[in-house]
Amino acid sequence: MTDHNDDTDMELYDIYRERIALIPKELKAGDAYGEYFAEVCDFVTAVINAVDMVKNGAIRSLSLKEKKSVLDGLFKNISKGYERSFLNPDHATDKLGTDTGRILSAVYAELVSMIAYAYEGDIKALNLRLSLFLEVYGSYAASLEEGEDIKADTFVGIYRDYAFDCAADMTDHAADELYRSGRYKVAGRIIESADLSDPSYLYDYGEYITDNELKMQAYLSSLPEDRIKDMACVFVGGYVKGFEATGKDIGIKDLAEIRYFIGFERVVREAVKLLSDQGLKVTFNRSQPSFAAGRKLIKNGYFSTIANRQFEADHENDKTVFFDRAYLEHKLTCYRNSLKALKKETSGYGGPAVIECFGEKPVILKAKESVYKPDDAFNALNAEYATRAVSILNEYVPGEERSFTIIAFPIPAIGPDFEKIFDETVALNTLDYETYRDIQQKIIDRLDTADHVRIIGKNGNKTDLKVNLYKLKDPDRETIFENCVADVNIPVGEVFTSPVLEGTEGILHVKEVYLNEMPFKDLTLKFDNGRIVEYDCANYDSPDDNRAYIMKYLLFSHTSLPMGEFAIGTNTTAYMMSKRYGLGEVMPILIAEKTGPHFAVGDTCYSHEEDVVTYNPDGKAIVARENSISAMRKEDPLKAYFGCHTDITIPYEELSRLYGVTKDGTEIDIIRDGRFALDGTELLNEPLDEMRGGF
């Protein structure tokens, strides 16, 4: 590979590796700290060996089995050996004590990011982490030599200094990857030139590789070229339509980002060609590998099967160690500087085109006492950072100029019917645009006359909601709901609006739902004036654990969220596919939201684009683009946005009735007993009729 590192980086790296090689000889047998540093040294040494092979090109000449052995060795303490590894906070605190074990486990987890940087050949990023480890070890060794107690606060201070010192490099690296195709271009090289018929290329990413990726690659390799092209055409077509539908000029953009699950390279390669025909270069951004920089269980970029979901969850809040007001301001300054330095490149960024995957069975993670837990002060700072970061992003990549598209496909983890489900999903993604457009327009026309909508659950669903609607001033030219067909959100099948918060109230309940890649049982949200005022679920025995789970994976550290969207999913074909193969617990939100009424908590669908007028296919302007919270954006953006938007769907069989109510009390049935009841929507019931015995 081409060496992108300067001589100073390499000299420092050589010094660090020589020092680390001496550490195992200095450790005392039988000492718990010695066990910790021995394990970490073993991991770091394996990383250094991988770096050597990447730099001299030897890793590319290895057989698939040899590449697998190298990568599996790097992930061994995350995957199979996690319970007895110091990466596990339970084990670390048991061996080293609560405070010391927790921080040293966090330091070790941060070092895991070196796997990605090793395969990128990023010596500077590696040096930052090697320095962190050597400082921690040096403090420990000094305490032993001077006969002093080992203090957790000392390690906390070192980790905090590390986070501050490398914040600029982290934001620079992320911006460079996203807006300039990156210095190291791991994914770019693979998409451009790898032999995609040979699965060994999967091990060149430096990401965890399982049967999911191998079987995905094998299946796509078996498909004829025209099938791959068709899939790419739908994907890229949605991206282009996203600009057209919102009246944005794709011609002023020269850069698109593709996010994908590793194994989809054949489709991605074809998509790159199609985007090139639109005058767009393509970038690929690795899902964040560093916990200090914001690594999360929910991946965002290119990624593979998560090696250990419990590991990801255990360390998501390690940044509470250093995330205070001073760090927040410092990180935002670094972020702004990184974008400012690439102002020309960011102005050409058109937005992401995303290939989502689904099929992995949900896992309820352990609620551990040994992990770092956010307090109210941290949650407030974290929410503030997310909001202010989006505001900075919109300065350099204006929201009113960019678009996106998302499409989803199953992965082999879905089970023995994978190929059948894959074929049905491809068909689902190409359902007739005009049929759904016309049926959905009938629903919109009737709901445009309503004052509010009532939603009542059945079959154990306790939902009882009133959703207040925007009041039209000019019905001949305006509409409340957007007619959503296959553009930014593939497949087709929903009408949606931003509800009026004031007057929106009641209970939203779902018996089982999979949100933000996490399972929820008996999720219950109570709304008053459109805001969540109470919340609960049944994932754990402890009410406190349930509330903490919702706070982390649904509220994203906010004390409350508004109802940012009310929608009616119309894709009964997708619903029947889900029922036929028992996919309820693995169906992604992208498809699940089309299989019943859904309610998004967080920002509206028009977040940061409230002032951009968009139109339905019938020519009417969509006017319900904001609510009383997002309306505060010009005075105080921190109060207007939350940086999240999560759709919660009620399946048809749990729905007793969904109907509009006019000002004079007239009721307009849209769905009754799980079936579409409005004249002109009968075609939507045909897939439902396939279910024996109905609901």
Taking all residues together, what is the mean pLDDT?
93
Strand content bin = 15-25%
Report Rg.
26 Å
Which ranges are low-confidence, i.e. pLDDT below 50, for 5 or more consecutive residues? none
* Major sheet: arrangement of strands: 12-11-10-6-5-17-18-19
Q: Largest sheet at a glance?
A: 8 strands, antiparallel
* End-to-end Cα distance: 59 Å
Relative helix content? 40-55%
**Please, what is the oligomeric state?**
single chain
Shape: globular
- Counting helices, strands and paired strands, the structural category is alpha+beta
Question: How many distinct beta strands?
Answer: 19
Count of separate DSSP helical elements = 23
Description:
The structure is a single chain. Among the domains are: 161 residues; 239 residues, no CATH class. It contains 23 helices and 19 strands. The strands form four sheets. It has an eight-stranded antiparallel β-sheet, covered by helices on one side. A hairpin with a 2-residue loop joins strand 11 and strand 12. It starts with 6 loop residues before the first helix and ends in a 6-residue tail after the last helix.
